[in-house]
Design brief:
Radius of gyration: 30 Å
Number of strands: 8
Order of helices and strands: EEHHHHHHHHHHHHEEHEEHEE
Distance between the termini: 73 Å
Mean pLDDT: 75
Structural class: mainly alpha
Shape: elongated
Strand content: under 5%
Largest sheet: 2 strands, antiparallel
Strand order of the largest sheet: 1-2
Length: about 400
């Protein structure tokens, strides 16, 4: 903003007789003023870049639309690299708070300090998805348990269903602590809140908890109702997110041979994740698999680059769409029939059973853990083809999935 002391104004002085005397005109200043006016003349108006004349509020509004609708990180990053002004306005807190999860769906191979900083900026701006994604990465991949859990809790306070369910899994397993740190009641409460918000895995987990009396009073009828509701919501999600409506959603694929160890409740166990998830596989109907959350995909890629070993003696969840690792030895429960797979939750157990483990599970009389300790037999028929018994149903250090 120019003041009256600028060059565009003639100098005014007062003489002794209090008369105002105007000095001679400053022709150099007039030439500058004329040059500035000529820049806005109609002759060259069409040749100017009018981007600088746009108000900041309008540019921020456009960037908010872009960040919320971007399909990959490069869509937004390319805009930030265009010029200094777009870089500054693109990192505005309002723009970062509207950023969609696909905008910061960073691949594990591209992880860097800049990517970490960008996710932190989004989380500090109040972006709930960024809080959850960064919380999962810090908790499981970067081994920063306290910061990761607090970020997930921040997202859960904002009623983020995925964060509520992830915190429930942490409470069920006592992740980041010891086996005595498990809090089944807290896990059920968090699961119930996520199920109320419509989270499918939380509905399935809550249904199994009610059926088994795991952290809550047993109610088989109510548990079956939640399992049926989870399947119904999963089927509705397939219809609503179908990318190609002309393509048939269901294909008839009769099972060639009956499974040697069928489970009578597999119709209500549901399925999802991975390629060609058979939601209604017992009837030969296949539906497309749901898209994995960027946090789960990041963890799967992160540990796949490390030969699938999260640490000495630690294992990954056997469900392909999960990616959660153990934070201590024998944290996850394994299949009590074959002993070759392990799961972080009963929701992952049911999904993996429907996807592939149904055809792979083979009962064995005895199975040995990594240290050579012999565990006991599993006699029940769970949703993963015979997961049976309770947490103390084996003689080794591993828990087995209870009958669900």
């Amino acid at each position: 903003m120019r003041t009256r002391r600028g060059l565009c104004y003639p100098r005014v002085v007062e003489d002794k007789n209090m008369r105002v005397v105007k000095r001679r005109r400053d022709f150099a200043a007039e030439q500058v003023s004329y040059r500035k006016r000529s820049r806005n003349s109609s002759d060259i108006a069409g040749k100017r870049d009018l981007f600088d004349s746009l108000p900041d509020d309008l540019v921020i509004s456009i960037l908010c639309k872009l960040s919320s609708s971007a399909t990959c990180p490069s869509d937004f990053a390319n805009v930030l690299l265009t010029c200094r002004r777009l870089n500054g306005l693109g990192l505005n807190s309002l723009v970062l708070s509207k950023t969609s999860q696909k905008t910061f769906a960073i691949r594990a191979k591209n992880w860097s300090e800049l990517a970490h900083r960008f996710l932190k900026l989004c989380a500090d701006a109040g972006n709930v998805e960024a809080c959850y994604t960064l919380g999962m990465i810090r908790f499981y991949c970067l081994h920063n348990r306290g910061s990761g859990a607090s970020l997930m809790a921040k997202a859960a306070i904002s009623s983020h269903a995925q964060a509520l369910y992830s915190l429930a899994v942490i409470q069920f397993n006592g992740s980041g602590g010891t086996k005595n740190d498990k809090d089944l009641r807290a896990g059920v409460a968090l699961c119930a809140r996520a199920a109320f918000l419509g989270h499918i895995d939380a509905l399935r987990e809550l249904g199994h908890c009610l059926q088994d009396g795991y952290g809550v009073r047993q109610n088989i009828t109510e548990g079956r109702r939640f399992l049926v509701q989870a399947n119904a919501r999963e089927l509705a999600a397939v219809f609503s997110t179908s990318a190609n409506p002309t393509r048939p959603l269901f294909t008839w694929n009769p099972l060639p041979l009956p499974h040697p160890h069928p489970h009578p409740r597999t119709v209500n166990s549901g399925g999802g994740g991975g390629g060609g998830c058979p939601l209604l596989s017992d009837f030969g109907c296949n539906v497309p698999a749901p898209e994995a959350h960027p946090a789960n995909r990041f963890m799967s890629e992160w540990f796949a680059a490390r030969a699938g070993i999260p640490g000495p003696g630690l294992r990954l969840c056997s469900h392909a769409g999960c990616g959660r690792p153990e934070t201590r030895r024998h944290e996850f429960r394994r299949c009590s029939v074959c002993g070759t797979v392990n799961y972080c939750s009963r929701a992952c157990q049911a999904l993996d059973w429907k996807m592939k483990h149904k055809a792979e599970c083979t009962p064995t009389e005895r199975w040995v853990d990594e240290e050579g300790d012999v565990d006991g037999n599993g006699n029940g028929n769970g949703d993963n083809g015979g997961d049976g018994g309770g947490e103390d149903g084996v003689n080794g250090n591993d828990d087995v999935m209870p009958d669900s």
